């Protein structure tokens, strides 16, 4: 259901109305496989405050921005209804509205884990009666409802770990019989059920209590999804195709922590394992227990910002144990092709023992963009083609040792959006077309040296949405018109 257009008569009704999105591209406007892809561009450098949802300095603090079928879902607190589900059609539609006051009055339903599945939005919420349960919305008040009261007690943890796979949502939940296990839903009560009981029988630590495998850290790939779950005294990484018969691909004693699962296309899945020492090893699997192996142990801080590019994994890490004597121990940019010998430091950006601390690794136009500090020019924007020689400073936005401290890097349709801090302007929104000359700041939102601190960039419809604080309205929802080719003039 394309809800923005489906109910135009509700536009004047305010709360819970459907919002028509202006000029959303139709199927005939999408390029065919034989045509060149559309080139998207910002229509202006001035973003627009969409609505002062909570008037005054505190702001409504929008969170969990998720692209809907035609508009943007998010949560916000307007100071009257508590934190609830909201929707916006952006700069060209009817506006931004509360979808439904799920928990009436000042109390908050606290919608969480917003997950789009086709034309539906799944999330968890607490209506004050059923406890935290699974909800679904089509963007209208009448189309927003409790899917199923899975556990009768309102004190239970509720569903968690929502992930979309093959047009349904999978998650962890607990009923009164089976403990906390893997569930699935198509958005109906009858289509919401436990997939399988991975830990049948009683808990070995608490006889008389159903065993709970507690699925968590759901991560999907094109062919399957992976999650961590316990059985007795063992912790396992499981692979599932959404039907009974999930198989473990990693098995260890319960004090191990398995996390940061990162797929590389349709190939290997990389993940980290902390064996209860506060340090992690990098592992890889190709979907079977036999194909799972440890690649390298990293002392100190965990490897982070694991990102796939051209069939390899790129990440930030310090020197690995067992490295050559004299290797610098600083935190630098690493790469792995899934082999032990192919897991190596890509480039010592901050030469010697210093840390360049690569962060916010994102891929655009088959290149890796990230923030790093070379020890001379401060923390700035860098780019890499996946080779040491092709890893270089992209642009020095704030000359000198302080650096512009780029964060919030998000590639959107060939344009990189990010936040950076420069002298006299504070922290504001920037964008780049992938060239140094095409890298520029948007019009200031918080004038002068004050910082708007934009975050959460996401495209929906004809806009790039984000949150920012202009110093007057508090943190609210903003949008920049962003359209393909010549559509800005329409």
State the major sheet: 5 strands, antiparallel
Number of strands: 39
Number of helices: 1
The gross shape turns out to be globular
Helix content: under 10%
Cα Rg: 24 Å
Structural class: mainly beta
Uncertain residue segments: 1-34, 320-326
Mean pLDDT: 90
Share in β-strands? over 45%
Termini Cα gap: 26 Å
Concise account of the structure shown:
The chain has 490 residues and is mainly β.
Keywords:
490 residues; mainly beta; five-stranded antiparallel β-sheet; disordered N terminus; signal; ELWxxDGT_rpt
Walk me through this protein's architecture.
With 490 residues, the chain is mainly beta. It has a domain of 217 residues. It has one helix and 39 strands. Strands 1, 2, 37, 38 and 39 form a five-stranded antiparallel sheet that branches. A four-stranded antiparallel sheet has the order 3-4-5-6, with no helix packed on it. Keywords: Signal. InterPro entries: ELWxxDGT_rpt. This is Quinoprotein.
